[in-house]
Amino acid sequence: MIRVLLAEDQAMVRGALAALLNLESDIEVVGAAADGEAAWRELQRLQPDVLVTDIEMPGLTGLELAQRVHRHGLPVRVVIATTFARAGFLRRALDAGVAGYVLKDAPPEQLAGAIRQVHRGGRAIDPHLALDAWSEADPLNDRERQVLRLAGEGMSAGDIAARLNLSAGTVRNYLSDAIGKLGASNRVEAYRLARQKGWL
What we know:
The chain is about 55% helix and about 15% strand. The protein is of the alpha/beta class.
């Protein structure tokens, strides 16, 4: 039996995924979490074989959760189930050690198949999306991405500095670098462009 933990912030989607996966004879959903931090706690408590996570969740995103799993060497395989068919997200997911990347509008059996594939030690990634992922490199580093994401949420340089324990000047430098790398005229345009590419 493949033991699965779900991390999904939308209750209806979380329930539907659990119900669908529990119909499979060889898959058991052992837990579900509504945000990344809760999922991290459940991962350590339940020790599932596979984590199925959305990308965008409150607190800790699915990609940040995957990075933490990878960094701590947890023996769990990670599958992203998302609406984002963007090469930038896939590339960042692969860099974070994710073994599977499935779109939520795919047939349900595709997710079950991906879970089985990664549980066997393989990868389960849409081949067209995989080709796109290497066509355009993400120019942002992790700190620039973090600062730009917070700026895009409406936070001022001072607020971002307080949140990240940086000086306001350092935050402005990161924003300036991100804007320059993206060829944008301001932080709003830089945020929009980076979102479109899947780099945030």
